[in-house]
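### Sample
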Amino acid sequence: MEMPQYCLICIRRVCPCLIKPPPDAEPPAQKIEPSAPILTRPLPPLPEGHRYYVALYDYTARTDDDLSVRAGDKLEVLYKYTEEWWIVKALTGISANKQGYVPSNYVAPQESLDAEPWYFPDTKRADSEKLLLCDGNVHGAFLIRESESHRGELSLSVLDDGKVKHYKVLRNLDGEYCIAKNHTFRTLKDLVKHYSRDAGGLCVRLTTPCKKLQAPQTHGLSYDTVDKWEIDRKMIKLIRKLGNGQYGDVHEGLWNNTTPVAVKTPKPGTMDPKDFLREAAIMKKLRHPKLIQLYAVCTLEEPIYIITELMKNGSLLEYLRNDQGDKITLSDQIEMAAQVTSGMAYLEQQNYIHRDLAARNVLVGENNICKVADFGLTRVFLNDNDYEANENCKFPIKWTAPEVIHFKKCSIKSDVWSFGILLHEIMTFGQIPYPEMTNMEVVRMLSKGYRMSCPALCPDALYNIMKGCWKDEACDRPTFETLLWELEGFFDMDPTSYS
């Protein structure tokens, strides 16, 4: 069975059978939640397809029904409970001979290319360099990825004395792989084995696969919260306060004493639980690597808990202000902007509007991983009076497109305007937009055609992107798909630079 892609743009549920059928009864068609302990009775037959898998990432059990595994452990799939959570038996490793749930995007068929630790299919050239240059990779570390410049082809990226070099992996008419045309191999595994023994024309002999920096997000907190996401607040332990805003506080928390989460607690009375639940039902379905995942909610009493994935470095705004160019380079800034654009391009594709895109609503994890947060929540918090352009306005005037300020016309194109402001924040390390102006002055000057000037040390090409986002007519502004293409263009290299 083909594994789901890590982008998680299009995941469909399957109809699971009964996990624990009653005695002397055939499994009914509907799903019945299993009760612990699970797997005490024979499971339904496994559908046709792969049966033996390899763990790609470490996974630590979050519930009593889960199974802890480590990357490289061999697994036998017993039952595909949903498309996202499978029941497996560990054949090797720390949980050998035990059974339980694991997320399906943490495993790959044993004999597939995806199971190889050196295969990074959806990795761009610039990302491969960043990965290989991270701490923990040694001289000769390598990965094989899909080529950006020639779709359908592969590239080998190798770490050589602190620099990353790239080689095209060619394929001849017989389907054999090669780097040098006079030395071919039947499979990629054979190619890797050969160059692991002998550099044979490469800059260095291949040593160890590149380390994977981050495991993919699981679909929900566990197998039984995918659909049932109003959870008992007693399962949430608030550990420490991470920050506060005009709508409430954010805490680091722990779910089920196992899983770190972020918990947003809106101020009592700032949102209608019914309105929030309607919006959250949509937000729950929006899943992309560059969007913060909504895990669960607690709405039966005040304060409401909004439970999401945790990003260790907090908001992009504070992250930028704390750095001020000490470690963050221009390349990092462009990459951050591209990550935000990727998440917004997905929302654009889903016909969804953020309404409050700004550096404060982008969160940062390890290795400068950025994800868009709080999409959709503005619609729940704000009322019509919040759009008035006065000095005490709750609405973020300095990030807001003119058509929203004057006519309350929100669209994905007004999000594009806000992205231009966010890009300005990134390039100025968190400087407040229009620093010398009040809200009223900003509204008045924008109507006269005023736009912020180019930040210091900002390339003209990036400033041109900002100005494109700030065009008067919404229809003249670029799409997020176009913006992503333009930002990723900064990382494109001349294909002739390949070794």
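The longest strand covers residues 236-245. This sample (Tyrosine-protein kinase) is used throughout the tutorial notebook.
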